[in-house]
């Protein structure tokens, strides 16, 4: 629980409001320690996440704690210690997690701490396991190919029958 002063300075209140607005635009959050990453590495990571409609932002921990409390997102304060960046995701969170873990292989300084995914708090191991699950679009593609396979076989069989009959009729 964040400690709130009786009288908050206007600049801090504005920063908390901005953090709340930023966080409220996303549904899932992955917390990572970014200490040791270069500006170029962080920029590259942000670019990869942007392709999946995700963002990677550093928000001061105390402002983030208050903003999460105001958004009724609890039990994430443990991840808001030390240098923390937040990967914020609208959908396909597992793909964003996969990007983070793949990037951590190239830049071991990036350490995933945990996440808040689907109204549930995940530790680092659970986020890593979640990153290995196929994404929503991949699952839909797999389902469609499973449904489409038998239909293609039926169509090919019928076409072969039509071709055979037309060849017999031509003779």
Question: Could you explain the architecture of this structure?
Answer:
The chain is of the alpha+beta class and 171 residues long. The chain is built from 6 helices and 5 strands. Strands 2-3-1-4-5 form a 5-stranded antiparallel β-sheet. A hairpin with a 2-residue loop joins β4 (111-117) and β5 (120-123). The longest helix has 35 residues, at 136-170. The termini are far apart. The model has no long low-confidence stretch (mean pLDDT 87).
Features:
171 residues, alpha+beta, 5-stranded antiparallel β-sheet, 6 helices, 5 strands
Please sum up the structure shown.
The protein is α+β, with helices and mostly antiparallel strands and 171 residues long. The protein is built from 6 helices and 5 strands; from the N terminus they run H-E-H-E-H-E-H-E-E-H-H.
